[in-house]
Design goal:
Blueprint lengths: L6 H4 L15 H9 L6 E6 L4 H7 L6 E5 L7 H14 L5 E5 L5 H10 L2 E4 L5 H11 L31 H8 L2 E5 L2 H14 L5 E4 L1 H7 L10 H16 L4 E4 L13 E6 H19 L12
Parallel strand pairs: 1-2, 1-8, 2-3, 3-4, 4-5, 5-6, 6-7, 7-8
Helix pairs in contact: 3-4, 4-5, 5-6, 6-8, 8-10
Amino acid sequence: MAEYLEVATKGMAAYRVPSLTQPHKARQAIRDAYEGKINPLIGYYCGVSSIPTARVMAQMGADVVWVDWEHSACGVETMTAIVHDIQFMSEGRTMAFVRLPGHDHASIGYALDAGASIVVPQIETVEQAQHVVAAAKFGPTRKGKRSAPPCRWLTGIKDTCINPTRSIWENVNDQAAIIIQIESEEGARNLDAILTAVGDQIDAVWMGTLDMRVTMGYDGFWGSELRFLEIVDLYQETLKKHDMPNTGMCLGHDWVKGANKAFVIVGGDAFAFLGDTATINSARENLAPLQANGKFNEH
């Protein structure tokens, strides 16, 4: 597949399919980034469930907007509208990835039916990973149990396939990506078994270091505790063993933290708000001395 040759001019539109109501060829995009055919996918975090805000994000030029359905007051309708606005307002140049609120079959289907790829939090066991894959895939060849949505990709309107020799269901199986998040010591220790069992259907892995550290009794996103660093090493070695792309966050222009990752979140609405908090505090400190006895300075 030669989509990567067009990324420089088209962005993620190089991986779009005939209908933007379908997922992009996100599985291929992640693999191409991992193999160095294209630059790492640059992501922007949508943590506030606001449709107007998402419309702005869609025009910012990111490869991916990560819609955090897990940690936002967001219903199915709002999540679906945000996904559609990201992909339509960007004209396919930006893909939507939805972090799910859990592992339940319905949430997996809702996000995928909206046309997004999915990020699944707090995977700890082989059984959980197998359930996620089954809920995300159609048909027996993938051991899938996903329900086919009769009104999502209407015949002759939205069901045009990139490979017309296969069904819409088989095409979509190969388009939407699945990223699993490892966020506990148990998950890290079981990652080898998880990828052995279903690694062919998992497209990348993300270590959620905040939750990882909370479950280990530590604070903050990172630390130097020996036990924590041992888990990080185990995680990285397991990914290497299974030839699996790593993904993660890289904030504050600390680009070293984005090294060797196929997909990197580099900013987001919540982080921008935090940055402006410093601006507000600076304004309080610096504007007061410029006033003349509470009156505007005539000069």
